[in-house]
Design goal:
Elements lengths: L5 E3 L4 E2 L8 E4 L4 E4 L1 E2 L8 E4 L7 E4 L2 E2 L8 E4 L4 E4 L1 E2 L7 E6 L9 E4 L2 E2 L5 E6 L4 E4 L1 E2 L9 E4 L9 E4 L2 E2 L8 E4 L4 E2 L3 E2 L4
Length: 196
């Protein structure tokens, strides 16, 4: 069948206190979400997968994925991934946000705008991409199993860049504050990484 987009952008969207993952989306089309809350779920907060197509994954507004047993937000895509104001705290087992689009045939970007928080998780923020990674105002602290932030785009054929803007804080993580693996230009702004 033809690819169909999934859009949740008008209304209140809360996926809390479920016995499995709060929100699961499998699609061949684009996934567009706004103001999503997925907390206190028995596995992940939200699992978004459109690897069967080439559509983008977009989250706008403020999106909260906290206090889930495994991870907060998991995304698998071959398109670009963009999100604003991600809050993913106290996801005990895995990553606050775990974003992958490195299966794309081209260099599709990953972009986080607004203010983003990944604290008291197994690990904070993990991104694997072939495209440019651009992040703004990241706080990733007190993550107890892995890094505060783990960024990988070193398989890019066009030497995609990694850029952090705004104010970025990576403190008191068990393994490391921020790890970056890239063949492109790395630009960091206002970074505080202590006690890792």
């Amino acid at each position: 069948p033809a690819a169909k987009n999934v859009t949740l952008t008008s209304g209140t969207f809360e996926f809390n206190d479920n016995g499995d993952t709060g929100l699961v989306i499998w699609s061949k089309g684009a996934i567009t979400l706004q103001d999503i809350t997925a907390n206190h779920n028995a596995t992940d907060g939200a699992y978004l997968d459109n690897l069967a197509g080439t559509g983008n994954v977009t989250l706008t507004g403020t999106n909260i994925f906290s206090e889930n047993v495994n991870g907060g937000l998991v995304v698998w895509s071959k398109g670009s991934i963009s999100a604003s104001n991600l809050i993913a705290n106290a996801n005990d087992g895995l990553w606050g946000a775990n974003l992958h689009n490195n299966a794309a045939t081209g260099s599709m970007p990953v972009t986080l705008t607004g203010s983003n928080e990944f604290k008291f998780n197994g690990g904070g923020l993990r991104i694997q991409s072939n495209g440019a990674i651009t992040l703004n105002n990241i706080v990733a602290s007190n993550n107890h199993n892995y890094n505060g932030v783990w960024l990988v785009n070193d398989s890019s054929t066009v030497n995609s860049s990694v850029t952090l803007t705004g104010t970025n804080i990576f403190n008191d993580n068990n393994y490391g504050g921020i790890n970056i693996y890239s063949k492109g230009i790395i630009s960091l702004n206002n970074v505080n990484a202590n006690g890792n």
